[in-house]
Amino acid sequence: MKTSTKVLEINNQNDFLDVITNGARFRIYLLDENIIRIKGTFADDFAPEQSYALVKTAWADATDELFGDERQRVSPISITVTELADHYCVTNGKYVLNIFKEPFYFEIVDENGRVVHQDLPNRAFVKDDFGREYHYSRMGDTNKFYGFGEKSGKLNKFKRRMRMHNTDSLGWNAQKSDPLYKMIPFYIDFDPAKQVASGLFYNTARDSVFDMDCEHSNYWLQYSYFQCDGGDLDVFFIGGPTIKKVVEHYTDLTGKSAMVPMASFGYMGSTMFYTELAEHADDAIIDFVETCKQNDIPCDGFFLSSGYTSGKDGKRYVFNWNKKRFPDPQKFVAELKARGVLLAPNIKPGMLTTHPLAKNFQQKAAYVKTADGQASQTDQFWGGSAYFVDFTSADGRAAWKTEMKKALISLGITSIWNDNNEYEINDNQAQVDAEGLHRTIGEVKPVMSTMMAKAAQEAINEAAPDQRPYLINRAGFAGIQRYAQTWAGDNYTSWTNLKYNIPTILGMGLSGVANQGCDIGGFDGPLPEPELFVRWVQNGIFQPRFSIHSCNTDNTVTEPWTYPAYTHYVRDAIKLRYSLIPYFYALLDEAATVGSPIMRPLVYEFQEDPQVAEESFEFMLGPALLVANVVEPQQTTKAIYLPKGARWFDLHTHQYYDGGQTITVPVDLSSIPMFLRSGGILPTSPGLHNIHNEPVEKLRILVEPSEAGKFTLYEDDGISNDYQTGDLLRTHIQVTPGSQGVTLDFQREGSYATKVKELELVVGCPTVAPVAVMIAGNEVPRYLNAARFATAVEGWYYSGETKQTTIRFANPDAVKFSVAINFSVKDLISI
What's the pTM? Predict the structure, then answer.
């Protein structure tokens, strides 16, 4: 065993600081005022710089050419070292890094003097006799730990031991299973007592473990540790001080979420059943789309399971169309497009040794190699022995893209579903190209799925440059958000999974992956009972990826109309989802520019409220909407905690509640408890039924004006890449309450010509109705008759039932305009 107990020397290289100890050596970069890199090795020298995760660096990296414009090269903050009696210190202007001499350890202190990270003295960095390396950190009595990528269980991972490893987890349990499909070695450390948050990202793709005080030793007291299977210990400290800021700064480092097409927020139909039919699977899928229409259920896409690739032997051969099931793929794709439905076919990176293209790929040196580098590695895959495409190889990516263009993109397909890409190759010594550095698969395994997504993005951009790629990934590594929407694989049908899928998604959002979802209704297991299915749909409509998908084990198919007596509940929920499309799309823009999650834990928005630090099942959709779904069977009442720091407007009962209390509301099978936050702004699209074929021409914006608020509405064409050259529109909406009323200011930025023709503002008026409404300085008429207002082009109407005022007017073409609502009480008696 090797450990570092004292500093021997330090060498300041200005851009970085080298620290030599009696065990390991370290290299420190002050990347910016929020990020400090500490790279350690017990070897004689550091491994070559090669990261598939980072988009912000201050050093040369072997993947710089590969990532091109994706990666930003910055100049690090120059290092000045101050030596004190027992330690050295350096600062990036916001944080001070203390390097203690003996015992050796690192400590990071923020600008307010709060210790935000501290290694475990005498045990900070260790290498054991098996070559595993450890980083031990001190912790306090109140720390909460969030993130860790795709994980089961509650949001706070205190007292959890979690493995970082990608695996095909069919039928996983959302409360207990570990590991799952994705590997993101990053977490947020939040101390509610100090009100400070920070993060640690370990830049390694090797198998690893996080232990958050699950292991305990009386000699060392409370600690957490990270353990990886060799390689350098490359850790990035991510500053806050808020959880929001940690997520923002982490995504500065690993990338923001991809701007996927707007229609990807629609309902995506899917089931394995149709593609397993003996013939005419295409007709069955067209019939599914038509049945949606007959049931008045919106639908914008279909995820095509891998049965469409089945060969004569029944095995799946990627890029091969089964012509009995799909006689004319191009006609099929075109028919779906005409109905406003995208097709996302399933593809897999394991190529069976019997695949017709297997030799072709082998001749192109496209596969992962055996440990000696002399042959193509094979291992077990779905259907038998398979080769695995090496996506760290330019040859592998090129061969893959060629076949994708030929078999799929040439048909007009620009949505790709990357599945079964966990790379469960048992021999970790198998060789990969790694951009010419020739590393082992054990060093880069989870990177393969991310690079598979990058290859698909490149293929679509090359073959169909006018179309925005839509990629869906099952597996992934840190940075997967740059390319793909993800989903949490093949969950089991159960009430437990319905409930615990919520913190799984919330944890992914805190790990930089804003666009995520789970199979609605459960993928594996029996058909969900009617109540469970309805509740799952009602919960699923708030997930960024919304797809009812199934491979049921009892010869059933989970479809929206599976239970005719309950179909109206499903339809109503999906229509509610479609009404929220402008909100979802604006939140995607925020994720793509800031890194914010779309579904957010309460602690993300209200970290000063100690009651929400452990909340796993209520969540915020964006900044404005609190959702408290019913996720237990046979509930007639629901206890809901409303966070401190806001007032809350019940969108069902139109009742106001003060924050900081638990309320109990009656619920039935139709209930979807939602609360608008004070100062909240919620843009909706009433009546939208298909995102592909129906532009949003009417925008209804719900506003709670009792405190100041702001929100940015985002618009572009939703399908092309023109937004990248500025063809977009951001409308900044500001709500400002005053003593006599409230003002709503609208300011537009961008060149995109909005399709919105009519605006409706639905403004809360809890105490008094307005006396007048002015739009751009001009008073608009008031209606006292609801029926007459329903047909009015312009005007306003106050509802005593809902205590809301609806203001309707034509969407102005002005860059700036204001709506002023006057709440002065008009005295009708006195003169």
Answer: 0.98
